[in-house]
Specification:
single chain, 316 residues, alpha/beta, D-Maltodextrin-Binding Protein, domain 2, ten-stranded mixed beta sheet, 12 helices
Amino acid sequence: MRLTVAILLTAAAPALAQPWPAKPVRLVIPYAPGGPVDITGRLTAQKLGEILGQQIVVDNRAGANGNIAVELVARSPADGYTLLMGANGPIAINPSLYAKLPVDPVRDLAPVSMVASSPMILVTHPSLPARSVQELVALAKARPGAINFASSGSGSTAHLSGELFRSMAGVSLVHVPYKGAGPALTDLVAGQTQVMFTGVSSTLPYVKAQRLRALGVSSGMRLAILPDVPTIGESVRGYEVLTWYGVFAPTGTPAAVVDTAQKAVAASFATPDARERLAALGADPNTLPGAEFAKMIRIEVDKWSRVVRESGARPE
């Protein structure tokens, strides 16, 4: 009997020690297909699958500004087989935006690796007589409350980027929320609204066609794809906003699994192909490992909590 048990345990040992991942991994994306988080998430899934030798299955779980997906992953088994493609909205903004959340994304999710970051771009309809950030600020001060800015929704990064600008520039702008960036951008191009802070990739074609005017980018440095467009911070000192994307696991996931996943993300976005595909989205690869990513998230949470508090932003 002892010999039989010993043989069974010996045979089972390789299975018990089987390295992660031994089966397909699910990557949950908190938004519908087609947006920047989804596109970045699908690229991440493809590249991780190539590195790890396992299928990474994309699972879009949109709703509640990303809270549905965050809760799903946070409550999943902490075994590395359910991951989240997170972004600053669900992770860093929602804890201040919502009075009560089903889970705490900072406490209940373990940052694996940042993947990429990208700036917002400040664009205006050409009918607005402002050709620079300085002129927009002067115009808004001369016409308090007369200029509106569209966003993808109340409490979105686009909305709060505008609120941060309003506060730092000392101007009065009227917020016009939409149900998504697409409808907001459509109305801006049609001249129904005047100003918008939005993603670079979706806006670039309109800027090149001169249907929208680009006044500034929200990054600390000018973009290579828009070298003539200054940073907003050149006119409004200290202004900087980056949207970011990263991979998260449920808190309690084994350190060895998190480490393997982090190294795989870093290897995935070290390839020229991945970097070029991110550049086409107006994003830069930025594979901060978990500990550094966690520090950045704490800074982001503090930053956006102040903006939410001062603006009185509430979810729709």
